[in-house]
Amino acid sequence: MNKFKEIEQQFNERQAIAKKQIKDEPKRLKRFIKWIAYWFIFPWKWLFVNIRDFRTFIIFGCVFLVMSCEVWVPYIIYFITNDIWWLGIGTACWTFWALPGTPFLVICITLTIIIKGLFNKLLRKHEKWN
């Protein structure tokens, strides 16, 4: 647990340094582009830093399964009813979400960040009570 806090603190420090460098940019257009790039890249950096934590991996797996239920539920119905229509629906949904440019992984990462933040907040409150 202590190692996780150190990793989180180091990541927050790097994040603060990056934000300060962006704020210190004198040109407005360049600063705007850097902000857009920062907020686009931040979830991926956060995931790669925090995926080493077992809880984050479990949370991401659960979020991925729940978010992809529109794919696996038609497949389950297909195996139960043996109706080819459900196989087509599941495959069409899977093809749509698997294509590049869809927000599926970004949504999963964002929900993982939110859920992990709530867990961390609850853990901090629990530590204060003890």
Description:
By secondary structure, the protein is mostly helical. Helix content is 87%, strand content 0%. The protein contains six helices and no strands. It has helices at 2-23, 28-50, 54-67, 69-81, 84-98, 104-129. Helix 2 crosses helix 6, helix 3 (54-67) packs across helix 6 and helix 4 runs antiparallel to helix 5. It is flat, with a radius of gyration of 20 Å. The model has no long low-confidence stretch (mean pLDDT 81).
Write the layout of secondary structure elements.
Layout: H1 2-23, H2 28-50, H3 54-67, H4 69-81, H5 84-98, H6 104-129
Helix pairs in contact: 1-2, 2-6, 3-6, 4-5
Supply database-style keywords.
130 residues, mainly alpha, 6 helices, 0% strand, flat
